[in-house]
Amino acid sequence: MFSTVNKPAERVDAYEKVTGRAKYGADLQFAGMLYGKVLRAKHPSARIKSINVEKARAIPGVWAVMTAQDVPCNEIGVIIQDQQVLAKERIYYIGDGVAMVAAESLDVAAKALESIEVEYEEMGGIFDPLVSKESDPIHPERASNEVVHHKLRKGNVDEGFAGSDVIIEREYETQFVEHSYIEPEAVVAVPHENGSLVTIYGSVQNVFATRDAVARCLKADLSKIRVVQNHIGGSFGGKDEVVSAMACRAALLALKTDRPVKMVNTREESIVESYKRHPYKMKYKVGATKDGKLMAMEIEAVADGGAYACQTPFVTWRSVVQATGPYEVPNVKTDTYGYYTNNVYTGAMRGYGSPQVIFANESLMDELAQELGITPLEIRLKNILKNGSVTASGQKLDRHEVSLAEVMKKAAEAIGYEEKYKEYSKPQRGDKRRGIGMAISFRGCSLGAEAVDGAGTVLSIQKDGSVYLYSGLAENGQGLKTAFCQIAAEELGIDMKHITFLEANTLISPDSGSTVASRSTLVGGNSVLNAAMRARKALSEFLAGQYNVPAEGLVFKDSNIFTPDGKKLISFAEAANKAFWAGVQLSHVGWYVAPSIHWDEEEGRGNPYFTYVYGCQIAEVEVDMGTGEVTVLNMAAAHDVGRAINPEMLKGQIYGGVMMGLGYGIMEEVETDEGYIANTNFDEYIIPTSKDMPNIIPIIVENPDPDGPFGAKSIGEPTLELGAAAIANAIAQATGRRIRSLPLNLERVLLGHPLKKGRGRK
C-alpha cells in the first residue's frame, strides 16, 4: 500500500549521533565567547534587602555583572507572565536567580558569584497547596494563591450516588518528578548576527516560545530575535520555560558585553532551578450498581504549581478532561485546582497532567472491582468507552475507532493476563510474591480546545530533485525528522535519502507553536503532507501541459513519474529540473489547522479534542515481602496509534515510555523539605537503569484516523502515563495491600509510608 510510510526507516539523525558529530548546546564555540553563570537564592521565601556586586565587577576577566535592575522587562511566562528573569525584591523559590555574570572562564565566573553580597530577610513560606488555598497571596499582586480552577460537569452526581448500590471514597497522591534528561540546559547567545539583535542557539525544545520570551524580556520585535535549535539531549517537556529564562539571561549578557555568551547548567543547577512534574492530591468518590455499572464519579484534584504559574493552567485542564478515565459515567463532577507555593515550580512533563489522574482512576477501578467481587478486567469491560459513547465532557465519539476493547484484548493475550491473574489470586507463601495489574487510558491528541493548534512546513524542491524541509516543530529526540521525511517521501514518491530536514529556525520556519502534547506527527505531519501535496500538484500541472496528460492521474513512485496506465513519463529529478527552468514555483508552505473543537469553561463541558488515542498496559511484578523491593518482570503495552509511520521507531517510543512510567511508579521522587531540594544529582535522585528494565512487549494497534496524515495519530506521551497505575495494581494483588501514594518504593511497600529524610537544606 505504501512505499515509505508504515515501514521501518533509518533515523535521519542516527549517523550524526552515533559518530559524535552531532553538536549539542554545550559543544558550541564562538570567537570571543564568554561564560555566563547565575547566582541563585539561598532561601525559598525571602525579601532581598540589598545586593552588592562591586567586588565581582572588580575581578579581572569579568565583563558584566547584572541584576534585576538591568532587565528591561523582568516578567516572562508562556501563559501568565509572573516569572522573574532575575529576582527583584522577592524570592519565591530556591531556584530564583538573583544576579548573573559573564566572564572569560568558568572559574572566573564562579569566583565572581562568590563575591556578590546579598542580604536577605527570610519570610515564612507555604509548601502545601492545601495550606496555600487558605493563605495570603504569595505573589502580592494576585488576589489569591489559586493559579487556576477547571471544572467538568455531566448529569447530576447526587442522583447518581442515590442510585448506586456501592459507593467508595479514596484519596491518592503523586510526587514531584524530575525530567532527568541526559543533557542539562545549555544556550549560547550571539549578539548582532545576520541582522538579528540576538541569536540564541542551544538545547531548546520550543524555539518560538523561547523567542517570544527573549523578545518580551528585551522589549524587542519578534523579527529581531532568532532562535536556532541544535541537537537536544532529551527534554520530555522540560526545556521550555527553563530554557526561555536562560536564553533571556544569556541575551542580556551578550548585548551588555557585545560578545557571545554561553550558559550551561550543571546537573545540580538544573535540578534546583528547573520545573518538575506536578504533585497532585486527589479525592475520588465513585458509585456503581452491584453488577459493576458506573453511576457517578466526583473528583477533586489539587496540583502544586510551585512558585510560578508556568503551564499549570494547561496541565490541570488536561487533567480535568481525563480524570474519570476512559469510562462511560452518566454523572460526573470534577474540579481541578492549581495553587502557588514556595516549592520549585511545576510545568510540562511527558504525560502533561494525565499520569497523575490515571494513577488515581485506574487504582480506583481495581478497588471498586474488589469491593464488588469482580475482576479488574470485568469492571473495565462493563464501562469502557465504545464507538458512539459520550465522554464525561459530553463529547460523542463518532469520528474515529474507539479501540479500548481491542487494545485490552491484545495486551491481555500477549502477557497471559487472565491465567496469571487467577494464579496470583491464590494464597502465596514465602517472601517472593507475584501480582499482575492493568491500566487503560484514552488521551486527547494535540493541544486541545484551550489553545490554537496549527503548524507549518516549508518544502522546497531543488532543480536536481533533492528536497529540503523546514518545520516549525522541533526534533527533541522523538524521531520527528524521520517521520516527517517519510511523509514527504511518500507523497512525492521519492527516496528519503534525497530529503534534508533542517533544524528549526525562527527566522525561516513557520511559527507552529510548541513541540508538545504528542502533536508533532498529527498536526506537524499534516502540514508536511500539505506542503508535499502542493509541490506535487505544481509539478503535475506543469507536466500535464508539457506532455498533454491529465494532471490528476499522474503517479509519483520510485523517484519517477508515471502516466495513469503505468507508463514512465519522466524521472522526478528530470521533472524538477525542467520545472525550475520553466519558472515553476517549487517551494511551498504547507499549513494545517486542527478541526474545530470547543470548550465551555463556565459550564465545564465541550469537545476538548478532535481525536483520541487508546492504550492498555499490563504489569507483572514480583515483590520481596522482606525488603519491600519491587521487580517488574514483564510489561505488555498495547497502543492504538492510528497508523504507524515508522513501526520500529514507534516501538522505541514504547520502550522509553514504559521505562519512564516504571521510574515514576516505583523509584523517582524529588525530595523537598520546606522548599529545599535534597537530592540534587543522580547519586540520590534514583532513575531506572538497564538493570531495572523488564521484558517489554510492544503491541502496535492500527486504526487509521480520518484526520491524521496517512491515518497517523500520536504515541510519545501515552506510553508513559499507564505504567505507574498498572504496577500499583500488580503490587496490590501481590501484597494484599493498597498503596495510594507514589512512588511505590521500598519504604512504602514495606512500611506503608515513606521515611523522613530530613536532609533537605543544602
Model description:
The chain has 762 residues and is α+β, with helices and mostly antiparallel strands. It has a 7-stranded mixed beta sheet, sandwiched between helices. Strands 9-17-16-15-10 form a 5-stranded mixed beta sheet. A hairpin with a 2-residue loop joins β30 and β31 (676-677). α14 packs parallel to α15. The model has no long low-confidence stretch (mean pLDDT 96).
Strand content: 25-35%
Tally of separate helices: 19
Distance between the termini: 60 Å
CATH class of the largest domain: Alpha Beta
Topology:
Elements lengths: L13 H6 L14 E7 L5 E7 L1 H4 L4 E5 L8 E2 L6 E2 L5 E2 L5 E7 L2 H10 L1 E6 L6 H5 L12 E9 L2 H6 L3 E8 L12 E6 L6 E5 L4 H12 L6 E5 L11 H17 L3 E4 L2 H7 L6 E9 L5 E13 L5 H11 L8 E10 L13 H19 L3 H8 L20 H12 L1 H8 L7 E13 L9 E8 L5 E5 L8 H13 L6 E4 L17 H28 L7 E3 L2 E3 L5 E4 H10 L5 E7 L4 E3 L4 E3 L4 E13 L5 E11 L6 H20 L5 E2 L2 E2 L17 E7 L21 H13 L10 H6 L11
Parallel strand pairs: 1-14, 12-13, 16-17, 20-21, 29-32
Antiparallel strand pairs: 1-7, 2-6, 2-8, 3-7, 4-5, 9-17, 10-15, 11-12, 11-14, 15-16, 18-28, 19-20, 19-25, 22-23, 23-24, 26-27, 28-29, 30-31
